[in-house]
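Researcher: Quick test of sequence recovery. Tokens follow.
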């Protein structure tokens, strides 16, 4: 991080603890007063309407020839223009909104408002997600589940240290923060019964994850190396991969999760670019044994992003129940994407790759309820004195995340969902 970066300030006022300083400039889709959804960025408590900014002729000369990308209801067309354009757009936005900018008055008093108070804004899904892959890349999480369900002495399966394990998930049920999710129903089987039962899950869980958004497509048969992967990733969002542990336990052999995972996953609304997160890059943990050549990565592959989980019971106070960090990932996002494509699988703009639960080495840094309450044997106590082993109806789960260094803070906002009772027969 250079001194010039640290000294950069905006003419839009922000507080030191704000997630959305001028150093961030994330991208999302906003909707206001019944108008059509459209791309925006954010500084402080204002959304910045990119369509309105383009109408002021302030976004010329950055490689965008078709300004219809700023009126699209998703970011896919804008993202498709490629990394040089993303960078040029962020640089232009930084210049326009930096303190001392010659364009401040033009922007402030434009006929079509550029600055929209966030209290007037509804956030929409930022991208059309074609495909979604869920990885299993935290060694602490994989070890914890292995200890619970397999062998405490050999918690990891033989393949885990050799490949970024993952599975293909359901993209249609990925929703934006603030969307309530009904408790799923499915088959479960108690250990002391011969036959399964059907009904609502009794072991609802969250999974603390971060997902990358694919920003550059490939053709079928094309491989993306770890050194090329950065050109194919637009940015990151928070990702709550809700899970029904009891349904999962019965269904996952031999093909893996199905109904236990596809009933709803929740993301934060603003995509934070890799360029914004560049000052917070940290090395990937030592990988033993050494990965095969196609998975080797040179450089800093993880990010020092603090991850927090809060639980709010219905009519109760909020409790902080976990603090983890993105730097706990054993397999970084570039290795994940390289492995995803090594067989020639093509990727498309807007596709998501989620990290899997990110757990840290201490009990207060575990990224799921099944770990925090250790398979229901060690209930956690909330601020109101109530306890939890899994999520109850009416509970709201809130993820937050930020990176902070030398007075600069880059945040993700909130990823929030409330669990409603199961519906139907």
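Model:
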């Amino acid at each position: 991080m250079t001194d010039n970066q640290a000294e950069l300030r905006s003419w839009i006022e922000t507080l030191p603890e704000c997630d959305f300083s001028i150093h961030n400039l994330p991208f999302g889709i906003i909707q206001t007063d019944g108008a059509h959804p459209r791309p925006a960025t954010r500084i402080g408590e204002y959304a910045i309407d990119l369509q309105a900014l383009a109408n002021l002729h302030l976004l010329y000369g950055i490689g965008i020839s078709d300004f219809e990308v700023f009126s699209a209801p998703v970011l896919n067309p804008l993202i498709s223009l490629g990394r040089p354009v993303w960078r040029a757009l962020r640089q232009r936005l930084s210049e326009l909104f930096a303190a001392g900018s010659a364009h401040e008055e033009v922007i402030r008093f434009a006929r079509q408002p550029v600055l929209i108070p966030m209290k007037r804004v509804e956030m929409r899904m930022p991208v059309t997600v074609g495909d979604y892959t869920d990885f299993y890349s935290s060694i602490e999480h994989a070890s914890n589940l292995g200890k619970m369900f397999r062998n405490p002495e050999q918690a990891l399966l033989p393949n885990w240290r050799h490949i970024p394990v993952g599975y293909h998930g359901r993209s249609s049920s990925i929703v934006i923060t603030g969307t309530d999710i009904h408790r799923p129903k499915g088959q479960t089987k108690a250990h002391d019964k011969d036959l399964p039962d059907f009904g609502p899950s009794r072991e609802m869980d969250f999974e603390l994850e971060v997902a990358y958004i694919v920003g550059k497509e490939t053709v079928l048969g094309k491989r993306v190396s770890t050194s090329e992967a950065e050109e194919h990733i637009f940015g990151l969002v928070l990702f709550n991969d809700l899970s029904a542990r009891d349904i999962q336990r019965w269904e996952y052999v031999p093909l893996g999760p199905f109904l236990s995972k596809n009933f709803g996953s929740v993301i934060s609304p603003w995509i934070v670019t890799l360029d914004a997160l560049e000052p917070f890059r940290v090395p990937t943990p030592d990988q033993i044994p050494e990965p095969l050549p196609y998975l080797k990565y040179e450089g800093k592959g993880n990010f020092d992003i603090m991850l927090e989980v809060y639980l709010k019971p219905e009519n109760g106070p909020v409790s902080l129940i976990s603090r983890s960090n993105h730097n706990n990932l054993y397999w970084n996002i570039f290795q994940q994407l390289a492995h995803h494509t090594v067989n020639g699988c093509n990727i498309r703009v807007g596709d998501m790759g989620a990290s899997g639960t990110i757990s840290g080495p201490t009990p207060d840094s575990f990224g799921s309820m099944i770990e925090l309450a250790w398979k229901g044997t060690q209930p956690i106590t909330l601020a109101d004195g109530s306890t939890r082993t899994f999520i109850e109806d009416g509970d709201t789960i809130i993820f937050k995340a930020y990176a902070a260094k030398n007075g600069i803070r880059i945040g993700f906002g909130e990823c929030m969902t409330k669990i409603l009772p199961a519906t139907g027969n």
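The chain has two domains: 3-124, 132-420.
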